């Protein structure tokens, strides 16, 4: 409990401030670490009293200062409790991620096809398309223990029923809030004076009869008779059932979702494009021709022989009218696809569209006013989040060598071998004999404890707000994978021969001695229970991680003097933070020399690679550990410079922060900005520029190597590789430079209830930490980049030995720019004889550029703005219209993303195309449609304390847009598009 012990030392001098008139010298002599305090509600723009504010409230918060008449230059969007209730989501994360500035946020509908990431079901925010790592998420202004060693918290572990508002700071804020706030800050603010009982019960299901969900929440708050003791507790349980695994082929979709049609890009080599035709052609019903559902001979004179029911061979139906050429290629097709034909081996629709997510959170806060305006408080959070997803069915294996004397081969194939004078052939299968899909189960547990003081004290005649706290948090993460094959066992088991006694055994004597059980991979056949247990053992991949965070903080805010235009506000403080992680993994994935959760489950086996592991089909987790410490000090000031009836009011705001990391040294952040409330009725200008920082996290620094099986296109052929990802301890901090300029026009006298804001942003990041994808590395190597070739092995004759090493590095710059628009208009309906009022809201973000320059020889700048296969469409918007009365409420919501492209670097053409290059390939169709979704909701007050509500998301059941790739994929981009379809929710709320 490092942070709590430090806080006790911190609270001792802080408690001296509780006495009126305590000397400033006493406070300033305390040198202890401290993070950001939540923005005070006092710094929001003045607005009329409202009961029905919705999701687009325009505010100008985003500072740690609270000063009379002060407006912050950094734009902030606030979502209050009324907004949250109207959106009626089972998880608060799903409501907040709708905001247009949040682009690339993860969740249970993302990473559904992932086995090895360890991030399945993780709910975390990303702003500006800059990634989760460049967005700082806080709870009551405090950092929260990460739920994964990439360094981000899981919003599912937050106490959600007591959240009163969520502030989203849409700009660089490192000087005020600390490292990681390059893209902005998302701060959840709880009600610390809540009294009474609040409850919520809701359920729902999709129109397809899946993803059933149930949420039950209750909170209680009370105080002592004299009002000095304040207690709040809450408990919540939520279950979202997810979708079942899809099937092989193109079968009509999961539970009747018929939109999946195996989209892909049919590719050729660059050299072939001298004919003036494009390299890539957009196709549907893509057929991978290197394997079939139950096995396919893929080279030699028997190429095209597939295996069906009972192992009976038949001639495979290639798409595109293709004929096998005997050398692994097929006429009318380009590696790896044909079009149409036998699609039964397609696995693209088999992954989860949404993971099952089960969450339980308990939260308590106790505060005691030791004097007027000064509170000592303690909080505790206990949370567990369980997720389950199905990455895919079967196990795609290509390039396997099968001997012609294999005991499981039908006589017709053996005779074919003899007739053609061959003793072996190449073979590919999706191993549909595995009846159950690969299943990944993840458990994330968190314990977090905070002890602190918060309140106002008088120092030398000035009232100061003091905030000091210590926090200790631990997250433990367990990942378990089942129904997955052990590759050396599979390879040995399918290589079977007939023994002298007529029985079928594994060919390898070593394998037989180690318990090998033969497995028939040729056709739709049933293997023995022992065979399945051997190739797909119950003791699948496992990972156990522990993440610890310790924080201590001290902050002071006050107005010690005034300028000619008003009081000058000052905030300063210090912070110390420690981040620690340790992870262990099973020896079959990691290597036998490493510590394991329970090594007795993984006995020694002579067939396995004991040096580096990587024996599983996927989920080869690795052991690792790391830690770093942070010391920070900051100061922020706001100086009014103008207060005139003629010229208006203006203030200048500035902040500086010095941060020292044990891993990467000292770095500075700063900001300077101002707000001018012009003499024009309701018109305000604001501008801010800042230097922001993000230090490399534990994952980027210390992550042990993670190996996944993948494929890349190399010299015109698809080859299997090991995708090896590892950390880099030599990384340096990223440096961001953010500039925002905008205006607010609110509550003009001629149109009460109207407000609009427009803000332009420009963010530049140097020394950006990036990792190239495996295909990018291969492409650059082919273009002659020797440093990238050094990270690959692509020509090994040994099956499974080819690899691409992927490592993060400081060799990139990122620049994004665009603008945000927010508008609202509230008006009563009394003029037309109706009760209540109407609220119209609109938020939109336009991304002009999002350019990443890797500074790698042979690469070019990549602009992902408007790339709808990524995270940042040109336009993303949210519109709401609501009618609210004392008795009922109705709301309509529209969500939209604009049309885009697959890649800004691709050249669209159908004929007379230039010769394609890896950096600028040609494609016949580079347009990816956007989407427009309509949601409907409403509530009815049954009594003054109880209301019933409903919500229908994706009312028109809009299908997601196809997201083709150059390899087999789920064919949809769940980061942008709704993949579940129409969803119904009903519930009841109570406030006593």
From TrEMBL:
The UniProt record lists the keyword Signal: yes
Keyword Transmembrane belongs to the record: yes
Annotated signal sequence range: 1-25
Subcellular location: Cell outer membrane
Polar residues bias: start-end ranges: 65-79
UniProtKB keywords: Cell outer membrane, Membrane, Receptor, Signal, TonB box, Transmembrane, Transmembrane beta strand, Transport
Location of region: Disordered: 65-84
Main location: membrane
InterPro entries per the UniProt record, alphabetical: Beta-barrel_TonB (IPR000531), Beta-barrel_TonB_sf (IPR036942), Plug_dom (IPR012910), Plug_dom_sf (IPR037066), TonB-dep_rcpt-like (IPR039426)
One Pfam family cited in the UniProt record for this chain: Plug
Domain TonB-dependent receptor plug, chain residue ranges per copy: 71-185
Every TonB-dependent receptor-like beta-barrel domain range: 446-955
Membrane topology label: Multi-pass membrane protein
PROSITE patterns: TONB_DEPENDENT_REC_3 (PS52016)
PANTHER family assigned to the protein according to its UniProt record, in alphabetical order: PTHR47234, SECRETIN_TONB SHORT N-TERMINAL DOMAIN-CONTAINING PROTEIN
Similarity-based family: Belongs to the TonB-dependent receptor family.
Record's protein name: TonB-dependent receptor
Organism placement in taxonomy: Bacteria, Pseudomonadati, Pseudomonadota, Alphaproteobacteria, Sphingomonadales
């Amino acid at each position: 409990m490092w942070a709590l012990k430090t806080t006790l030392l911190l609270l001792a001098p802080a408690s001296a401030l509780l006495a009126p008139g305590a000397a400033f010298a006493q406070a300033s002599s305390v040198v202890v670490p401290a993070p950001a305090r939540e923005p005070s509600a006092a710094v929001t723009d003045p607005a009329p009293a409202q009961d029905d504010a919705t999701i687009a409230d325009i505010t100008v918060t985003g500072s740690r200062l609270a000063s009379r008449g002060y407006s912050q230059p950094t734009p902030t969007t606030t979502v209050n409790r009324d907004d949250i209730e109207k959106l009626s989501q089972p998880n608060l994360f799903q409501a907040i991620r709708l905001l247009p500035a949040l682009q690339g946020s993860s969740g249970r509908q993302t990473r559904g096809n992932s086995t090895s990431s360890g991030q399945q079901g993780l709910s975390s925010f990303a702003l500006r398309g800059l990634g989760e790592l460049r967005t700082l998420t806080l709870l009551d202004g405090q950092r929260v223990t990460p739920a994964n060693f990439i360094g981000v918290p899981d919003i599912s572990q937050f106490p959600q029923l007591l959240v009163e508002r969520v502030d989203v700071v849409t700009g660089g804020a490192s000087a005020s809030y600390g490292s990681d706030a390059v893209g902005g800050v998302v701060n959840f603010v709880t009600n610390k004076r809540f009294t009474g009982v609040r409850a919520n019960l809701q359920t729902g299901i999709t129109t397809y009869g899946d993803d059933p969900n149930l949420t039950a929440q209750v909170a209680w708050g009370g105080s002592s008779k004299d009002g000095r003791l304040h207690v709040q507790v809450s408990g919540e349980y939520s279950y979202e059932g997810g979708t079942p695994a899809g099937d092989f082929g193109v079968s009509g979709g999961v539970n009747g979702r018929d939109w999946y049609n195996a989209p892909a890009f049919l590719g050729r080599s660059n050299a072939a494009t001298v004919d003036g035709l494009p390299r890539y052609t957009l196709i549907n019903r893509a057929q991978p021709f290197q394997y079939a559902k139950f096995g396919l001979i893929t080279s030699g004179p028997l190429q095209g022989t597939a295996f069906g029911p009972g192992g009976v061979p038949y001639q495979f139906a290639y798409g595109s009218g293709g004929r096998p050429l005997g050398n692994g290629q097929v006429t009318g097709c380009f590696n790896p696809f044909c079009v149409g034909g036998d699609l039964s081996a397609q696995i693209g629709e088999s992954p989860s569209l949404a993971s099952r997510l089960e969450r339980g959170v308990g939260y308590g806060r106790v505060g005691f006013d030791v004097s007027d305006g000064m509170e000592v408080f303690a909080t505790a959070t206990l949370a567990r989040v369980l997720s389950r997803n199905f990455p895919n069915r079967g196990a795609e294996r290509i390039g396997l060598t099968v001997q012609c004397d294999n005991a499981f081969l039908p006589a017709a194939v053996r005779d074919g071998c003899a007739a053609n004078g061959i003793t072996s052939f190449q073979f590919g299968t999706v191993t549909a004999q595995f009846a159950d899909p690969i299943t990944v189960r993840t458990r994330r547990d968190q314990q977090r404890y905070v002890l602190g003081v918060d309140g106002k004290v008088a120092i030398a005649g000035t009232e100061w707000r003091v905030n000091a706290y210590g926090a200790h948090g631990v997250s433990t993460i367990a990942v378990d994978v089942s129904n997955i094959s052990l590759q050396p066992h599979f390879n040995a088991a399918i290589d079977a021969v007939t023994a002298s006694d007529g029985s079928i055994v594994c060919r390898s004597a070593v394998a037989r001695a180690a318990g090998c059980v033969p497995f028939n991979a040729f056709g739709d056949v049933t293997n023995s229970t022992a065979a399945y247990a051997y190739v797909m053992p119950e003791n699948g991949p496992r990972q156990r991680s522990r993440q610890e965070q310790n924080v201590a903080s001290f902050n002071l805010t006050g107005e010690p003097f005034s300028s000619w235009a008003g009081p000058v506000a000052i905030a300063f403080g210090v912070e110390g933070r420690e981040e620690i992680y340790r992870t262990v993994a099973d020896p079959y994935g990691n290597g036998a020399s490493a510590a394991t959760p329970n090594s007795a489950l993984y006995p020694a086996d002579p067939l396995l690679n004991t040096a580096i592991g990587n024996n599983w089909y996927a989920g080869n987790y690795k052991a690792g550990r790391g830690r770093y410490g942070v010391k920070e000090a900051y100061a922020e000031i706001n100086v009014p410079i103008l207060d005139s009836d003629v010229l208006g009011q203006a203030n200048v705001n500035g902040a500086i922060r010095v941060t020292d990391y044990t891993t990467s040294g000292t770095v500075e952040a700063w900001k300077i900005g101002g707000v001018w409330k012009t003499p024009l009725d309701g018109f305000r200008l604001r501008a801010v520029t800042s230097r922001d920082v993000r230090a490399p996290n534990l994952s980027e620094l210390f992550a042990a190597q993670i190996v996944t099986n993948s494929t890349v296109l190399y010299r015109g052929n698809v080859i299997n590789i090991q995708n090896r990802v590892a950390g880099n301890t030599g990384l340096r901090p990223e440096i961001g430079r953010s500039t925002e300029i905008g205006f607010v026009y609110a509550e003009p006298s001629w149109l009460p209830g109207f407000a609009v804001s427009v803000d332009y942003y420009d963010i530049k990041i140097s020394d950006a930490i990036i990792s190239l994808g495996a295909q990018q590395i291969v492409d650059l190597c082919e273009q002659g980049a020797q440093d990238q070739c050094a990270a690959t092995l692509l020509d090994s004759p040994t099956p499974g030995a080819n690899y691409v090493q992927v490592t993060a590095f400081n060799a990139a710059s990122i620049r994004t720019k665009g603008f945000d628009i927010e508008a609202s208009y509230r008006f009563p309906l009394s003029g037309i004889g109706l009760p209540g009022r109407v609220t119209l809201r609109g938020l939109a973000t336009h991304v002009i550029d999002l350019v990443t320059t890797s500074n790698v020889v042979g690469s070019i700048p990549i602009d992902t703005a408007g790339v709808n296969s990524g995270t940042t469409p040109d336009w993303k918007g949210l519109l709401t219209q609501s009618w609210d009365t004392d008795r009922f409420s109705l709301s309509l919501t529209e969500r939209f993303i604009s049309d885009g492209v697959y890649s800004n670097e691709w050249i669209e053409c159908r004929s007379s195309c230039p010769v394609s290059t890896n950096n600028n390939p040609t494609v016949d169709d580079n347009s990816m449609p956007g989407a427009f979704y309509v949601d409907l909701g409403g509530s009815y007050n049954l009594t003054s304390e109880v209301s019933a509500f409903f919500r229908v998301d994706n009312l028109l059941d809009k299908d997601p847009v196809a997201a083709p790739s150059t390899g087999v994929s789920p064919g949809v981009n769940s980061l942008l598009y709704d993949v579940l379809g129409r969803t119904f929710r009903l519930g009841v709320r109570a406030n006593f």
